[in-house]
């Protein structure tokens, strides 16, 4: 059995740029704080992880739960408004690639994103992906990317013999897989890796199995 796990933003959908802008705006709207958008400066680069660090470093711990709730609601609302007026594009070839995977008997597909669950679904739906919501793991589940990936991986924990590969587009995806000793495929050119694809156009899924 082969288990392929996918990041979403920048890996399957072209959402990284607008997602970043709306995320920063949502935090500023609720807290009044204009955050640093150099994500490499944060310890845990997930929606919950970054927000936790903003709350902690600005002495807002007393109101942390309320801030998290309000920021998340604002972000989901604004992403929903965005996708209602802007068609989200899939990374070239990604939908066809995913459809072919679902037809293969010895392959399981999961999603492990550092974004929040509701916005992940909004983007996958807008781009036209066919997927199972139960297979999507997100920053709602944990603030650490490694833990999110491990939750996705645990879907096949009862399998005695299976391979696991993660597809991501960023340095933090690469580092998470290194920590987990998991096979990693880089999508795009935001960083570098010895296993790297430009996109999913004309790819035969069997080469990753």
Features:
209 residues; alpha/beta; Rossmann fold; 2 domains; six-stranded parallel beta sheet
Structural overview:
Helix 1 packs across helix 3 and helix 6 crosses helix 7. The chain is built from 7 helices and 6 strands. A 6-stranded parallel beta sheet has the order 3-2-1-4-5-6, with helices on both faces. Strand 2 (107-112), helix 5 and strand 3 form a beta-alpha-beta unit. The mean pLDDT is 95. It folds into 2 domains: 2-14 and 89-208, HAD superfamily/HAD-like (Rossmann fold, 3-Layer(aba) Sandwich), CATH 3.40.50.1000; 16-85. The chain has 209 residues and is of the alpha/beta class.
Distance between the termini: 9 Å
How are the strands ordered across the major sheet?
A: 3-2-1-4-5-6
Query: How many beta-strand elements?
Result: 6
Indicate the overall shape: globular
The named CATH superfamily of the largest domain: HAD superfamily/HAD-like
Q: Mean pLDDT across all residues, rounded? A: 95
CATH T-level fold name of the largest domain: Rossmann fold
Proportion of beta-strand residues: 5-15%
- Work out the helicity level: 40-55%
Under CATH at level 1, the class of the largest domain stands as Alpha Beta
Number of domains: 2
Rg from alpha-carbon coordinates? 17 Å
Q: Give the SSE string.
A: EHHHHEHEHEHEE
User: Strand count, sense and closure of the main sheet?
Assistant: 6 strands, parallel
Question: How would you sum up this structure in a few lines?
Answer:
By secondary structure, the chain is an alpha/beta fold.
């Amino acid at each position: 059995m082969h288990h392929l796990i996918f990041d979403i933003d920048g890996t399957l959908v072209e959402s990284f740029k607008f997602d970043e802008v709306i995320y920063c705006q949502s935090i500023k709207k609720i807290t009044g704080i204009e955050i640093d958008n150099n994500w490499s400066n944060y310890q845990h680069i997930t929606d919950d992880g970054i927000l936790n660090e903003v709350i902690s470093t600005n002495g807002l711990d007393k109101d942390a739960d309320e801030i998290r709730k309000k920021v998340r609601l604002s972000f989901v609302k604004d992403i929903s408004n965005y996708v209602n007026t802007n068609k989200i594009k899939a990374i070239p070839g990604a939908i066809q690639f995913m459809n072919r995977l679902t037809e293969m008997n010895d392959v399981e597909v999961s999603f492990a994103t550092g974004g929040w669950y509701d916005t992940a679904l909004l983007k996958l739906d807008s781009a036209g992906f066919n997927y199972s919501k139960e297979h999507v793991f997100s920053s709602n589940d944990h603030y650490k990317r490694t833990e999110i990936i491990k939750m996705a991986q645990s879907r096949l924990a009862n399998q005695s013999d299976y391979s696991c590969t993660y597809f991501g587009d960023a340095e933090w995806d690469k580092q998470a897989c290194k920590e987990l000793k998991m096979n990693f495929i880089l999508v795009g050119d935001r960083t570098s890796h010895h296993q790297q694809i430009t996109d999913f156009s004309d790819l035969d899924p069997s080469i990753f199995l």
